[in-house]
Structure formats: C-alpha cells, structure tokens
Amino acid sequence: MTSLTRRALRGLERFHAARPWDHNAHFHRWILRQLPERVGSALDVGCGSGDLARLLTGRAARVHGIDTDPAITARARELTPVAAPVTYTVTDATTGLGDRSYDVITCVAVVHHLPFTEALETFRDHLATGGTLVLVGVARERTPVDHLLGLASIPLNVLMALLKNRGRPAPRPDSMSAPTRPADLTFPEIAREARAVLPGVRLRRRLFWRYTLVWRRL
Which of 21, 56, 37 has its CA nearest to residue 156? Predict the structure, then answer.
C-alpha cells in the first residue's frame, strides 16, 4: 500500500467519523416494502434501540423486539411510546423464542453473529404459515462481484454521508451497541446454506456491503 493510498484511507476514516450514518437503517423502508399491508405479529431479532421495531407497528398489531444487550434494550424501551404495541426482551435469538410464532420476522446485520444455519432454522420454525422472513446481512468479500460492489459503494458512501448529514457533522447513531464483528461466510456459502434451509428463498447482493434475504413460508 502506497503512502498516498494510506493518506486517502485515513482521510476517508476521518470524514466518516465526523459524518456517520446508519447503513442498517438505510434498509428499513425497503424491509417494509417486502411485507403485507397488515399482519398480526412481528419479531425483530437484534432490535438494538428499536428503530425498526417501532416502524413495524405500521404493519403489525403486535411487535416484539429481542436483543442480547440489556443496555440497548433498555434504551429501546425509553425511546418507545408507552402506548405503542411493542415489547422488548433480552434474550438469545436461537434459544429464547419459546414456542411462539410470528407473521413477520426481521433481522438486520445480526445473523453473522449467530450460528448461521441454526439461526435460519430457528427463524423458519417460528414463522407462521404464510409469514415473511426478511433479513439484511453482511458477507465476507471474496468474489469479483463482491469487490466490484464494494468499490462502487465507496463514493456512494461519501455521498450518502453528505446527504444524511446535510454536510454537517452529526452524532453517531445509537441503534446498536454490540461490538462489530467481521462476517465469516461468503455470499455463495450463505446462499447455499439458505437454500437448503429455506426452499424458494430469494437472496441478492446489495451496495453498502450488505445482502438481503426474503422468504415466505407457504
């Protein structure tokens, strides 16, 4: 790596540190578009401070958010109006769901922290007949397509930072507090495992270092 490249990377890091934006929240409206107009119940796995859980109340009569972090779950409760049909629980996604089923299950940038196949099996088993699973995930870059999308995301990331912050520094989002962890699985590996567990699943690589998964239980 040349000194010019290193200086450019440091400059980008300083720029984004001053103008952060939530890459995961960027997909929230897209998630809502994958869902029926109205459902009975929704589960948001890894709910963080509850941004998506609160949005889901526009589609679901009852919303339940779960997270393993007590502090961020407490923050979600603080931010959620008392009258909102949302509850939060501190629990593990693969062991703490009990015997309940949901019409919608969402999971954003969380599944790479879990045993992937076990997590998908858990979501499948807790999704009601006719229900929808929507997942936004992170994959390890390996293929030429991965690297091309990553390169294309760099200038778009700068543009989004400017647009979201209107050119002004902004406080860092508090939607999650867990330490970030790099993904272990590549997109082809994710696709292979997902198709084995969820027949008919739809997967797609996305910009901003994400992929999406949508599955409807027939």
Answer: 21
Q: What is the DSSP letter of 59?
A: T
Give the distance from CA 27 to its chain's centroid.
8
Domain range list for the chain: 1-218
Q: pLDDT (tens digit, 9 = 90+) per residue, 135-158? A: 999 998 777 776 676 666 666 555
Residue 121 and residue 194: Cα distance in Å, rounded? 9
- Beta strand pairing status for 86-90 and 210-216? unpaired
How, if at all, do strands 202-206 and 86-90 pair? unpaired
Model pTM score:
0.82
What are the residues facing 35 on neighbouring strands?
none
State how beta strands 102-108 and 86-90 pair: unpaired
Give the whole-angstrom CA distance, residue 197 versus residue 118.
9
Residue positions counted in the chain: 218
CA 148 to chain centre: 22
Contacts of 199 (CB under 8 A, 6+ apart): none
Q: Which fold has domain 1-218?
A: Rossmann fold (3.40.50)
